[in-house]
Amino acid sequence: MKKLILLLLITLPVAAQQYPSKPVRLVVPFPPGGPTDVVSRLLAPKLAELLGQQIVVENRGGSGGMIGTEQVAKAVPDGYTIIMGTIGGLAVAKSLNPRLGYDTLRDLAPITQSVSVTSILIVHPSVPAKNVRELLAIAKSSPGKLNYASSGNGTVTHLAGELLKLLGKVSIVHVPYKGGAPALTAIMSGEVDMSYENSLIITPYIRSGRVRALAVTGATRSKLLPELPTIAETLPGYNASGWYGLLAPAATPKPIIARLHVEAANALHSPDIVAKLASQGAEPVGNTPEEFTAFIRSEISKWANLVKAAKMRTD
């Protein structure tokens, strides 16, 4: 056994130097077409160029990102399976589902926070509200009449909706979908009244008039749509910004994590990626694995309080 451990210690740096020697699988824990998919497919070609190997994007949707996240947490820790994780699967899942099959900080190795992005509170044109105050007035006058779409239980869109209900003291029905793309289809068709859609995918539909934007969910106004107020301007303390980040299975060799971090950060801050993200209301981050770990820990604590206060459930 001691000889085997010694052999592993000797060969790991060599393996890291040769990494990657085959394509890397990037798991997106949502269906195609949603914001997580958009970010992943934007980043993948640049990261592949820097690593010198193909990045294969694989969609594994379900349960608000929890299914795909669990699959990666249980994958072989060799650097050839990574995930574009989200706030739901990484920071909210444990509070929302006590029987979750993985623990983010125990079973996954953070690489870097990729992107931070705000969502936009939108309504179908049939809803008469022109701003957050009017929307809350409608909800208060007819409790349970309005409903909102989310991209799944525990996702940032679910959190955004429950935070509005909690701070606004209103009753609005949650309708979870299996990803951002089906939720977007539902709001545009009038199947639901409102939603909190990511700026990465909703901006063209706002400008075309297919949906009406009321406010942004972040703490500050969006550079992309500066005319929109924040929800916090009506409900002080409101902040439900989204983010995405790369992680690998725990026990992935640190030299491989370091290589992935360097190249992912380089890719995120390349001029073309920065410009494309900015055009869609998103900002690159590219922080260190240690900084990303600390951020995830703080997010777990932050959203656990909302899950408890709002009595959020998986059903």
Give the second-level CATH assignment, the architecture of the largest domain.
3-Layer(aba) Sandwich
Determine the CATH superfamily of the largest domain. Answer: Bordetella uptake gene, domain 1
Percent helix: 40-55%
Query: Which regions contain 5 or more consecutive residues with pLDDT less than 50?
Result: 1-9
| Overall outline | globular
**Which strand order do you get reading across the main beta sheet?**
2-1-3-10-4-11
* The first-level CATH class name of the largest domain: Alpha Beta
Order of helices and strands: HEHEHEHHEEHEHEHEHEEHHEH
How many strands, what sense, and barrel or not for the largest sheet? 6 strands, mixed
- The count of β-strands is 11
Total number of distinct structural domains: 2
Rg, alpha carbons: 20 Å
Structural class estimated from helices and strands: alpha/beta
CATH topology of the largest domain: D-Maltodextrin-Binding Protein, domain 2
| N-to-C span | 47 Å
The overall pLDDT average reads 92
Helix segment tally: 12
Which strand-content bin applies to the residues?
A: 15-25%
